[in-house]
Amino acid sequence: MSTSISFITSNKGKPLLVYDGYLYKLNKATEKVKYWTCQERTCSASVHTDSDDQFIKSKGNHGSHLPSPEEIEWRMFKSVVKRRIKEESIAIGLIYDQELARAHFSQAGLAVSLSSQEAKSSLNKLRRKTTPILPDSSDFDIPDLYSTTIDSR
Description:
Layout: E1 5-9, E2 15-19, E3 22-29, E4 33-38, E5 46-50, E6 55-59, H1 69-87, H2 92-103, H3 107-112, H4 116-130
């Protein structure tokens, strides 16, 4: 029996396991096994994977709550947007709108999504973390390669 699991990143950069429409957070990791618990605090369902993130087994059921495919869609979308903001220098609003158009959200997924204006503040913070700081002074060396003009002046 082949079991499909995937991984996404939480807002704090931690791995989340996606299995059967539910999200699991890493509870404990040993040398051979990783123990994942349902993200819903009141739920006792869990999943075990090996150290290479291959499914071993699941335990318990999610009797206290339903799966949340919209939240998973939304988290996957956010991780793609964040990756692009870190790697590319085009406008944040443009990246957000391009990915929103590409995402093909369900109606419920669109209902929980933010507009690019609403998301811009946190995304700007992310971009600032990857942008080099501006120098404090204008005292710096210009390499010889850049110290002459095209007409050799």
